[in-house]
Amino acid sequence: MEPPSGPASRRHVPWSRLLLAGSLLNFWTPPTATQLTVETVTPLAAEGSDVLLLAHNMTKNTLGYAWQRGERVDNAQLIASYRVDTNATTNGPAYSGRETLYPNGTLLIRNVTQRDTGSYTLLVTKNDLQTEIQTGHLHVHPVLPTPVITSNNSNPREHEDTVVLTCGAETQNTSYMWWINSQSLPKGTRLELSEDKRTLTVVAVTRNDTGPYVCEARNPVSVSRSDPFTLDVLSPVAKPSLQASNATVTEHEGPVILTCLADETGVSIRWFFKGQSLLLAQRMTLSSDKSTLTIDPVSREDTGDYQCEAFNRGNSSRSDPLRLRVTSIGTCAVSPLLTP
Length: 340
Ligand SMILES: *[C@@H]1O[C@H](CO)[C@@H](O)[C@H](O)[C@H]1NC(C)=O
Ligand SMILES: *[C@@H]1O[C@H](CO)[C@@H](O)[C@H](O)[C@H]1NC(C)=O
Ligand SMILES: *[C@@H]1O[C@H](CO)[C@@H](O)[C@H](O)[C@H]1NC(C)=O
Ligand SMILES: *[C@@H]1O[C@H](CO)[C@@H](O)[C@H](O)[C@H]1NC(C)=O
Ligand SMILES: *[C@@H]1O[C@H](CO)[C@@H](O)[C@H](O)[C@H]1NC(C)=O
Ligand SMILES: *[C@@H]1O[C@H](CO)[C@@H](O)[C@H](O)[C@H]1NC(C)=O
Ligand SMILES: *[C@@H]1O[C@H](CO)[C@@H](O)[C@H](O)[C@H]1NC(C)=O
Ligand SMILES: *[C@@H]1O[C@H](CO)[C@@H](O)[C@H](O)[C@H]1NC(C)=O
Ligand SMILES: *[C@@H]1O[C@H](CO)[C@@H](O)[C@H](O)[C@H]1NC(C)=O
Description:
Number of domains: 3
Distance between the termini: 135 Å
Oligomer: single chain
Structural class: mainly beta
CATH superfamily of the largest domain: Immunoglobulins
Helix content: under 10%
Shape: rod-shaped
Bound molecules: 2-acetamido-2-deoxy-beta-D-glucopyranose
Largest sheet: 6 strands, mixed
CATH architecture of the largest domain: Sandwich
CATH class of the largest domain: Mainly Beta
């Protein structure tokens, strides 16, 4: 087949008409020895990165080429065109200032944004005015920030409240994973994941649901894991009981040991004497977990009602009062010798 115009006239054909001629001749594409191809170097690109749209198998006898947005040759979507005989680059309406056209036909787009997602079409016009067209595709994804787990209830009550945990802000094309205590989610009916797995619902929380929870957000260009999140479950505190080694003792005799029995872990203990916070005298010592109060030696001033209270961050419960009687030495009334 003969090319539609001879080499002599080609030299004087205005560039815009060459492009137009090229686009009109699209349907007439004879088989060529090498096939022009467009390769997007990173078809799934991270926002802010630079992307190359490589033109492979460009023929030597090229008059010029033009890159446009979209799947078609469209001057309204022209990014830039290049003319080989003058080395002249002309920017088009779709040029954003971030594109560079190389003499080998490759297009560089710097600092891509999600708006750059789409198709890019290269039109090559050859010396014989034949054209070749190839389209490449680019999908720009955001780099996901570190997700933060939020709860719709910061102080859920045990067995009463249902809590919804959410992994970060909603983003497209993102998948999620969760861990509790560094383990994948246990099977069970009380844990429900939303369809996209961004939210985790814990039905009727218990103290065992404290966590810590970790979630991970993943898209085609990034993976990001949250900091651990701990759920503060408010659990009711059972009433403790108070026992004494001996509730009726003689002054200055052996130690009296009061023991507070609280049947839960995770509770703290405090003591009351005659309804007031107990002020520790020198004779008194508390065990490190505060469950045992030792009075040694015991004094008549220690006579009275003792109580212990078990508490956590949201609830507390006090024991029944236990009366300690400290009697004077001897069975009779207070000896006059002992009073100053
Ligand atoms: C160049 O064209 C040849 C023939 O069509 C083809 O086999 C080859 O894969 C092409 N090269 C590239 C990098 O596309
Ligand atoms: C074209 O040139 C650019 C810049 O020098 C280079 O990065 C790219 O790899 C070249 N394209 C091809 C297909 O070799
Ligand atoms: C175009 O660039 C080539 C090398 O890059 C150079 O040899 C040639 O003289 C240039 N042509 C014009 C018209 O500037
Ligand atoms: C990349 O683009 C963003 C806006 O999309 C801009 O804030 C940033 O400064 C640009 N970075 C560079 C290196 O040009
Ligand atoms: C949290 O979400 C769950 C499920 O939608 C709901 O039952 C519960 O009342 C919510 N809690 C608060 C404090 O809004
Ligand atoms: C990203 O999400 C959009 C809409 O949610 C969808 O049309 C597109 O196919 C997705 N892209 C990828 C690469 O998954
Ligand atoms: C919490 O876990 C422990 C140990 O697995 C279990 O004995 C206890 O019954 C659980 N408590 C609740 C409220 O589910
Ligand atoms: C309690 O203390 C009193 C006086 O110190 C003593 O007589 C009594 O035996 C003690 N009771 C017990 C059960 O230790
Ligand atoms: C402790 O929890 C129980 C049951 O939820 C509640 O009835 C009680 O009022 C709470 N006590 C305090 C001191 O908050």
